[in-house]
Amino acid sequence: MKRHLFAVALAVTVAGLVAPIARPAAQDGPLRVTVSLPATERGPVDGRLLLIISKREGAEPRFQVSDGPTGQPIFGMDVDGWTASAPAVFDGAIAGFPLASLNDLPGGTYTVQALLHRYETFRRSDGHTVKMPMDRGEGQQWNQAPGNLYSTPRSVTIDPRTGGTIAIALDQVIPPIPPPADTKYIKHERIESALLTKFWGRPMHLGANVLLPEGWDTHPEARYPLFIYHGHFPYTFTGFREEPPDPNLAPDFAARFNLRGYNRIQQEHAHDFFKEWTGPGFPRAIVIEIQHPTPFYDDSYAVNSANQGPYGDAIVRELIPYLEQKYRGLGEGWARFMYGGSTGGWEAMAAQVFYPDEFNGAYIACPDPIDFRAFTVVNLYEDENAYFIASDWKRTPRPGRRDYLGHVASTLEEMNRLELVLGTKTRSGQQWDVWEATYSPVGPDGYPARIWDKRTGVIDKKVAEHWREHYDLSHILRRDWEQGLGRKLEGKLHIYVGDMDNYYLNNAVYLVEDFLKSTTNPPYGGEVDYGDRAEHCWNGDHTRPNALSRLRYHQMFIPKAVERMEKTAPAGADLRSWRY
Fold first, then answer.
1. Residue 516 is assigned to a structural domain of this protein
2. DSSP codes, 205-228
3. 210-237 average pLDDT score
4. In terms of CB atoms within 10 Å, which end of the chain has fewer, N or C?
5. 463 and 422 in one domain?
């Protein structure tokens, strides 16, 4: 599910700097906000132009957008062939969230900011030409993407009743992100993918952050098992810190966990992992985090897709062999394992299902929906509308996000309305759109076919059928288990989720568990476990709260995987060179 904030230093060069109060220049017409390109911008530009209007202090408005209770109003429009010769105009007809229109804004003083999320033109090998935002090293974050233009935040008095025009200039540009530095233990790799380059019609790359085992440089004869930690875009390897925690680090506050000083806790656990990783007794192995952002999202979901391209094959056939050859991996399926949570949990399970011989086990925490009869709280095959529960006399909204007590912060309609403001044609870079980009067939215009109407919530059953046959992991298991898939997956699927997951992801796990625990030809031989009252993203640790267990994926799953490897390795397999 939707994702961490990018950890690299933000380009907030004007944070806290707000220009003097500006008032509408004229009171003779409806409220309008004009946004202009700098004169130095040569040639026409394409993209999504966003206007954020905030009444909150603190971070710049571009960092205050969300579908939760604290999210500030945002409005968006597509710009095609836009030039500096004429400003773009926001008026009452431009769609917004959570307010539908600028005219719904109460009169008052606000901080306003505009941002242009740049698109480029792709001429794909399937014959379609599309305009999309290319990732530029930030992991598909529109408010942090290098090259995007934005305006200095301004304090403005707005009153739709009196109208007038407010002029904004895009006077700032987000700078490039410097590459991370290699260390003794952490290496950063990047390769051009022939498969993806062919599909997208321009050079496309895959990257990996590689954690090398202690003694890798002094044991040249050793070859190592490979562990893939699936998840969202990682700038560098996460959760590993050679230095002791910084004693001068000012404590932050993690609202998600209601915990003060979580940044200190993260440093402590990262350093503890370093000590375990380099100490005696910990399995010597290679761990990688994959960088595979697409023009749709911060990662590809690690599968082949009609809209995103053959990322599954590119990762399995190109990236993994390259890394194993360079860093002396064992290079065989019995010695490869995956783990991850949320999006990473779905990816680990999907890769295991779609490439059953290439991996020897998946540890699947709080996975995105693995049964589309429970696509969070929607049954895509039986429900007619994603946003409202069927009723003769009322419209009951479907919930989208809750806490462990069931308090709802967002509805499905609200989540999807925000995405539509951030980007049309499945281009928001957000959670519901990436599911659509991954699972849907290509639509007539070259963009993903909508699973439901983004405005009304009406589900397209033909698209849902395509989803079921190609990406509904539960359906694929039930369809293919006795045709040979079950034999290849025996003992490889281990699923963990909290029974109060914030995004209702436990609902799909129940359905998959029903099948796995009832099938006997062959028995699945894995594990399904639930955390009592645990939120997203519980990963099987009954001894620690989520805030801590989420920092211990490697320690939890690598030893388990090694035990399985020792039991299932083929005769003559190398189980010794890496055990030093």
1. no
2. EEEEEEEPPTTTTT-TT--B-EEE
3. 97
4. C
5. yes
pLDDT, tens digit (0-9, with 9 covering 90-100), for 56-84: 999 999 999 999 999 999 999 999 999 99
The tokens for 193 are 């993918």
Among the candidates 470, 505, 534, a domain finishes at: 470
Residue 1 placed within a domain: no
**Could you tell me if 121 and 166 lie in one domain?**
yes
The number of angstroms, rounded, from the C-alpha of 47 to the middle of its chain's C-alpha atoms is 21
Domain co-membership, 265 together with 356:
yes
Label each residue of 18-66 as H, E or C: CEEEECCCCCCCCCEEEEECCCCCCCCEEEEEEEEEECCCCCCHHHCCC
- What's 347-384 look like in SS3? HHHHHHHHCCCCCCCEEEECCCCCCHHHECCECCCCCC
pTM of the predicted protein model: 0.93
Instruction: Specify the pLDDT at position 6.
Output: 34
Based on the domain organization, do 278 and 359 belong to the same domain? yes
Distance CA 316, CA 148 (A): 33
Query: Distance between CA atoms of 543 and 563, rounded to whole angstroms?
Result: 21
Query: CB-hemisphere CA count at 13 Å for 249?
Result: 16
Cis peptide bond upstream of 98, omega within 30 = yes
193 and 212 in a single domain? The answer is: yes
**Which range of residues forms the domain containing residue 255?**
186-371+473-497+551-568
Task: Give the end-to-end CA distance of the chain in Å, rounded to a whole number.
Answer: 38
Q: Which one of 470, 487, 506 terminates a domain?
A: 470
Same domain for 347 and 389? no
Residues 100 and 127 in one domain: yes
The predicted structure's pLDDT at residue 28: 52
311 shares a domain with 226: yes
Residue 43: the pLDDT is 84
Report pLDDT for 29.
75
Rounded to an integer, what distance in angstroms lies between the CA atom of residue 337 and that of residue 327? Answer: 16
For the stretch 414-443, pLDDT in tens is: 999 999 999 999 999 999 999 999 999 999
Q: What is the pLDDT of residue 9?
A: 35
Q: What is the pLDDT averaged over residues 440-456?
A: 98
Beta-strand pair 309-310/304-305: antiparallel
Beta carbons of 352 and 489 less than 8 angstroms apart: yes
Instruction: Specify if 313 maps to a domain.
Output: yes
d(CA 335, CA 227): 8
Q: What is the mean pLDDT of the chain?
A: 94
pLDDT of residue 346: 98
pLDDT (tens digit per residue) in 359-403: 999 999 999 999 999 999 999 999 999 999 999 999 999 999 999
Residue 274 token pair? 């370093």
Strands 408-411 and 19-22: unpaired
Classify residue 99: in a domain, yes or no: yes
Q: Are strands 45-54 and 286-291 parallel, antiparallel or unpaired?
A: unpaired
Name the DSSP letter for residue 334.
G
Q: Residue 291: enclosing H or E segment and its boundaries?
A: strand 286-291
